[in-house]
Amino acid sequence: MTDIECTTCEPSRGISRRTVLRGMAIGAAVAGVSSALGPIGTRVAWAATPGYTGDTLVVLSLRGGFDAMSAIVPAADPDYYRLRPSIAIPAARTLPIDSRFGLHPSLAPLIPLANAGQLGFVHAVGLPAPNRSHFDAMDQLEQAAPGSTLRTGWLDRMLALHDPTGPFGAVQMGSTTMPYSLAGPFPALGMDSLEGFRLHAAWDAASTTRWSNALTALHTGAGAQLQGSATGTLSALATTSALASDANASAVTYPDSNLGRALSDAGRLIRGNRGARVITIDEGDWDMHAGMGTVDGGWMVDHLTDLGAALAAFAADLGSRIANVTLLTITEFGRRASENESQGLDHGWGSAMMLLGGGVVPGVHGSWPGLTDAALNDGDLAVTTDYRAVLADVLTNRCGASTSEVANVLPGFTGATLGVTRARA
Amino acid sequence: MAVSTAVTPVVRTVTQQVVVTYKYSARTHVTTVTRSRKRRVKARFVGTTIYLLNAAGHWVRIPYIWSARKAALVYDRRLHLALIAAAKPKPKPKPTPPAPGADPSPGYVSQDPARHLLRRATYGSTPALLEEVARLGIAGWVDRQLNPGAINDSACEAVLARLPDQAEPIWQVHDLLDRDERSGWDQLRGVMTAHVARAAWSERQLLAVMEDFWGNHFNVTTPGAEVPSSRAHYAYTIRTHAFGKFADLLRAVTLHPAMLTYLNNRTSSDVHPNENHGRELLELHTVGVDAGYGEQGVLNSARILTGLSVSWDSGEYLYAPWRHWVGSVSVMGFSHSNTTKAGGEAVAIAYINHLARQPETAHRIAVKLARHFVSDTPPTSLVDALASTYLAHDTAIAPVLRQLFTSTEFSASIGMKTRRPYEELIATVRTLGLGAEKGTGVESIEALIWMAGDAGQPPLGWPFPTGHPDVAAAWLSTASTLARWNNTMNLVANWWPTTFTRPDLRQHLTHGVTPATCGAAVDMVCLRLFGRTLTPAHRAAVLAFLDEDADAPITENTGVLTWYLEQLVALLLNSPYHLTR
């Protein structure tokens, strides 16, 4: 396995555009009738039940391969400093979580959340077997059904446990390009932003009404489904327009970044009570092969600063509503334990997940395998926790899924739950 | 299968075990001949299909297959049933009317047969195409399209010349990528861009449609990992076989590095046969999931394909005998002793040829073609007729398409299909008369890839081997609908991309004529866009949108043909008048 497999990368750094294209392939339109989708639909072997009563699950995908060891630093592990002579985060600069780990100083806004018991981490987590190709690893991660021929994502299967109740049950926020995790028959909605989810042709309220009336009239006489798609879209537009209005603005200031804007809109959607069960957000550009910077500044510092501030703002914005929200981060792979010649990190295996919410058990979960030569897997942080154990834990404790429902969402997974979340009250 | 599997007919004198009594299992489709007599006959082999001379001196198909073990022609009941079904006299085609599909809106489109044909067989009609159909007739026009080499396509080719050559050998692309002289991303983007350019501007419209059809039937998700070196050549391969024999297309695709990579057969081996390709070859590419091959069939299929691989060195197709699984195989009526590693490739090719000629494959291809061109729920009468033609012409596609477009079922299906987002987008480009940007760039064309993706249907980008769904119900989500509406306005108003070459919108729609009233102006625009005017209720709604009375005179201050024209056109193109195919 070579270090860099970016045969399809753009010459410039970063994965974001490629990710978008890959995601684009999933289509914003994977809705509709299961029989229309052929094999996709054949997996609907269990009955959907109405009335989802679990948390709003926010899945934040850190695209490109998130270097967990720069964020949740193994500050007590001497091998970490041996392997990363120029980019390691000095122990003295980290914000201690426990005797083994400290947060990167750029994540300082998260410390109050950790102290409030709303933030947890799982370290050395990832795919059950290494896969260092962005495309393949993302697909595997989000299909979450290794060895099966299922053509759906795990979130779609989770959503399909209950009937759809409106257009906002599953929303990809920040981009119209859907993640594989949402691929499947459950209707999901992708939007760049609440404000941007609008008819570009209409320039003011009167014009919007005019368009709405004319489109409704012109679709009257069409087949029922086509007519319904037009009226349903116009109704969703009215909703997002209301959610995006100043009346719905948050008192909290989010960072002015893609992530900040997406989380701010997620906050509006949750506060607006529109039945959001799943919100997905893609945050790209973690593919730091070269020049990632040091603790004092650079690519990684910029990204962690944004991440910390955005998550802290989201928690503040939700206020007491955080009791019914669980956010988790996920990434296709971690990065090499040792730095390369370019002050960067190539594709690796084990990474970390962060969990934020009212039902999160704080602390660093999972078993730390260490970074000795013998402990490394082909030069990578070994995975000691299958990421599906985290998903199963959240599905069970926070999303009301029974054991058999978890087995439907994560077929083939038989591991134990982790205890990273508490059961809903 | 000792007989040559080349598709060139071979006439040989062989032994025929003429059946006297037999047993047949409808479940396993296995025929056991209990009594037979031998005779020597002159037989014509076309691949695995066998013909004997009848009394009238014609070669006719017989329900016998070649048995290598018995070195003779042996009776096969299953084939017999298929031949009977295919040969059933259909004196008067009694077309079942197209069932109301998922959601047709037949009241929206012009009933003109020429426009109907062009809505289905192209990405959108143009005045030039309408003239052509009027001149050649429907059958004549289809025949011309079925011979794409004879159609001058220089304008489109000039656009394509801005992109990497798709016919470039794989090893050469592989080498350029290896040496970082070309990026994999550019290579894949070129494939998508060329696909879109052909749809929008090729004069060989039916070829462009079929290239998309087969591209989805044999989907290799683009962009995708590890196929940059072979993906362009894969598209080229599909294009060159699009109207030929399905058996040839299937063989070319199954042995292509892009497919062997996409479905993991390149790393399959005798020790660990990877079932992905073996399964999809049956389920998606040929006989279909209900054909009854079972998991044992999948395993046998995967075993047969072991050894079909790709050279890591060149990226080209490679048969790797050392990976081939040896031993007797049997699936879907194909069986072979498969005794040597060296002989594995020939076994695989014989298997592919066998699958292409199965009645189940004929039926499946017929259903998919009829679903694409006729109705989401195609009439059985048409499907059966197309399947018979497919088998009777030894899997040739052109006669099937010719029959389809001249069938009564086709002409009765006006308004029964809905354009998918990508089809709708390209139809908008064509109806507005947009052209690729000046110079040598392709950014305007690439923008269409993104727009189609926003609407949920990125060209060649369906994430699964199944290809884009071909029924209306799959494409009616809120996100897709809004993206379509916005794409239309962007294109009409030249908001993004801004680099297309385009005619003046008013001139394009009115030819310089100024109608007397606002109502007449709406009628004129609709006639140009759709070949018909709106229903009275819809016309009233459009005039309300314009805030004009039908009989209000057109003056210098009227917005209809000036500052409000873009809004009007975008509204009309966002209606079922344009969305109905």
Would you mind describing this structure in some detail?
The complex is a heterodimer of chains A (425) and B (581). With 425 residues, chain A is an alpha/beta fold. Chain A has helices at residues 16-24, 68-71, 78-83, 111-115, 134-143, 154-159, 205-219, 224-243, 258-271, 299-318, 387-398, 403-409, and strands spanning 56-62, 72-73, 95-96, 102-103, 119-126, 170-173, 189-191, 278-283, 325-330, 351-357, 363-365, 385-386. Chain A contains 12 helices and 12 strands. In chain A, the strands form 2 sheets. In chain A, strands 1, 5, 6, 7, 8, 9, 10, 11 and 12 form a 9-stranded mixed beta sheet that branches. A 3-stranded antiparallel beta sheet of chain A has the order 2-4-3. The termini of chain A are far apart. With 581 residues, chain B is of the alpha+beta class. In chain B, α2 (113-121) crosses α3 (127-145) and α18 (421-432) packs antiparallel against α19. The two termini of chain B are 45 Å apart.
Strand content of chain A: 5-15%
Strand order across the largest sheet of chain B = 1-2-3-4
Largest inter-chain contact set: A-B, 67 and 73 residues
What helical percentage do the residues of chain A reach? 25-40%
Care to count the β-strands of chain A? 12
> pLDDT average of chain B, as an integer?
92
Could you report the average pLDDT of chain A, rounded to the nearest whole number? 87
CATH class of the largest domain in chain A: Alpha Beta
Oligomer: heterodimer
Give the C-alpha Rg of chain A: 21 Å
